Amino acid sequence: MPKVSQLHLDARRQEILAGARACFARHGYEGATVRRLEEETGLSRGAIFHHFRDKESLFLAVAEDDAAEMAAVVAEQGLVQVMRNLLDDEFSPEQAGWLGTQLEVSRRLRTDKDFAARWAARSEAISQATHDRLTRQREAGVLREDVDLDTLQRFLELALDGLVLHLAMGRPAAKLGTVLDLVEEAVRRR
Amino acid sequence: MPKVSQLHLDARRQEILAGARACFARHGYEGATVRRLEEETGLSRGAIFHHFRDKESLFLAVAEDDAAEMAAVVAEQGLVQVMRNLLDDEFSPEQAGWLGTQLEVSRRLRTDKDFAARWAARSEAISQATHDRLTRQREAGVLREDVDLDTLQRFLELALDGLVLHLAMGRPAAKLGTVLDLVEEAVRRR
User: Which residues bind DNA (chains A, B) (predicted)?
Assistant: First the structure.
């Protein structure tokens, strides 16, 4: 019997995550049954749960993947750019999946204390990336000086949360570009 | 047999709405079973569905009630005040209920087209109240002149959505007061 290579295992894991992301987005956490996860990934439950202990672990892996990607964009380009990217990708299936995951996370944070604890560590990465970037921007003299960094960070995070909820509800992204200009202007040096 | 007065019927209706709001907040829409609605309202399913055709109608009535109250505050005091009130009431059970309802609305807007259509008319009242107030404020010379009203309205609504998601996730309200100062400053005349 041929040995399954690590490369193959990683590819399979990515396949499962992509299918699961779409499935959670479409049906919500509770609605994403094992049967639906099988359909969406094209794999058997045996194959899926060879890679992930249970549905909760699978969901957290999806959310963790998204958080890592977002932290990378924040580090390079800042939180406002994350928001602008959300507007540009409005109709992509990937984005629909991402938004769905975010809302599911929000809902489970509210209703499930254990989940909240497991999630805290993961969301910390985005927060840290934002803090680091704002610190660099302040040193570069780009930011307004009359408001502390902590408040500027919370303000940007509030705008991002608002955008997530707005788009996740299916409301139009059109005309939000100028709104993000306002958001950006509010944190910059005049 | 004594005739049931309109006053009594209205009071009963309010009782059901209060219990249902708590129940939807705690368990989500799907989780708010008829049995749980009975427990939370202290009334039988017969009594509940004498007043509301079905669970969806009950949920929409809760959401409509919330929207009407919010539109009234917007008309009197503006959208930023709605946000400040949310911070003040952070730990009240009423607020937990309201936030829960908002998130459930968001989730159902995404997954249920029929619901989205029924909801659209209700959310219009808040939007209209915001528009009217901003128009009056612009006439009074309170708002900045270099950005159109539509954009200012979308900016404030984005902040509100962000606050709803933030609080609904159980994140702390502390320190958001200064963030709302930034929001308010961003729309005002310098």
Answer: 33-52
User: Cβ B170–A116 below 8 Å, yes or no?
Assistant: yes
Q: How confident is the model at residue A107 (pLDDT cuts 50, 70, 90)?
A: confident
pLDDT above 90: residue B116? no
Residues A158, B159 contacting (CB under 8 angstroms): yes
Write down the ipTM of this complex: 0.81
The confidence band for B90, taking pLDDT boundaries of 50, 70 and 90, is low
**What residue type is assigned to position A66 of the chain?**
D
With beta carbons under 8 A apart, name residues in chain A contacting B154.
175-176, 178-179
Q: Is the residue at A25 inside a domain?
A: no
Average pLDDT over every residue of B153-180: 89
Asked if residue A91 has pLDDT above 70, the reply is no
Cα B7 to chain center, whole Å?
25
Interacting residues of A63 by C-beta distance below 8 A, sequence separation 6+: A101, A105, A119, A122
Nearest CB partner across the interface for B103, out of A106, A150, A151 = A106
CATH number for position B172: 1.10.357.10
Confirm whether A172 is domain-assigned.
yes
Contact B110 A166 (CB under 8 A): no
B94, B26, B7, B17: which is closest to B51 by C-alpha? B17
From CA A125, how far away is CA A115, in angstroms rounded? 17
* Residue B125 confidence class, pLDDT cut points 50, 70, 90: confident
Q: How far apart are CA B56 and CA B53, in angstroms?
A: 8
| Global confidence as pTM | 0.82
Q: Please report the pLDDT score of residue A108 as a whole number.
A: 74
Task: Answer whether residue A178 is part of any domain.
Answer: yes
B103 chain-A contacts, CB cut-off 8 A? 103, 106-107, 110
Q: Which domain holds residue B114?
A: 56-187
DSSP label at residue A128:
H
Phi-psi region of A176 (alpha: psi -120 to 50; beta: other; left: phi over 0): alpha
Q: Quick: pLDDT tens for A30-41.
A: 789 999 999 999
User: How far away is chain B from the Cα of A155, in angstroms, using its nearest Cα?
Assistant: 5
Residue A73 lies in a domain: yes
